[in-house]
Amino acid sequence: MYLFTTLYDIIIIIIIIIIIIIIIIIIIIIIIIITTTTTIIIIIIIIMTPTTTNIV
Questions:
Q1: How far lies 46's CA from each of 8, 40, 52, in Å?
Q2: How far apart are CA 10 and CA 18, in angstroms?
Q3: Is the pTM higher than 0.70?
Q4: How far does the chain reach from its first CA to its final CA, in angstroms?
Q5: Exposure on the CB side of residue 7, measured as CA atoms within 13 A
Q6: pLDDT digits (tens, 9 = 90+) for 3-54
Q7: What does each C-alpha distance from 26 to 2, 10, 14, 20, 23 come to in angstroms?
Q8: What does the DSSP assignment read for 4-40?
């Protein structure tokens, strides 16, 4: 009985660790998406500004 409870605890701990890893991966993916979109926006702004200044 005691062995079974420890095994159950180990399974719960493993599940919690997996959930934490999944959350961390999701956060990293979100950060990567945000940084790439901001860099793309910055690049677009940099590309667009010389043309506008040239016109003026």
A1: 57, 10, 10
A2: 12
A3: no
A4: 82
A5: 4
A6: 667 888 889 999 999 999 999 999 999 999 999 999 999 998 888 876 655 5
A7: 36, 24, 18, 10, 5
A8: HHHHHHHHHHHHHHHHHHHHHHHHHHHHHHHHHHHHH
